Amino acid sequence: MDKIRDILGKARVIAVVGASLDECSPSFTITKYLIARGSGVYPVNPKYAGEEISGVKFLASLSDIKEKIDIIDVFRRSEAIPGMVDDFIAARPGVVWFQLEIYAPDSFKVLEENGIEVIHDRCIYKELMEC
Fold first, then answer.
1. Is 20:48 a contact under the CB 8 Å cutoff?
2. What is the pTM of this model?
3. 55-73 pLDDT per residue, tens
């Protein structure tokens, strides 16, 4: 728990992969919360590229972010994760955070082998509320 608090306490730039404009989606609620708390948040979803959530424009890909990413917060289905690993590695974040019920152990291993910390099956919103 202290490790997670430390990660969250130091994070200044968070990319939310799979962010959505669907108000019923957890990624919508959590992205809005992250923006409201003052984090440098980049919603990433090619479906919404150029549109805005809480005044912040959606980006098409992680490569559109030009500053160091502390956390990539992932809202995608488990089966989509292997196809995203190269993008995660190229972005060189400190942490890739997989939200609840995302499980891709082979992908987690590849990320860790590339020096990227992995947190999985945890809700970033819940963890922030407990800090």
1. yes
2. 0.95
3. 999 999 999 999 999 999 9
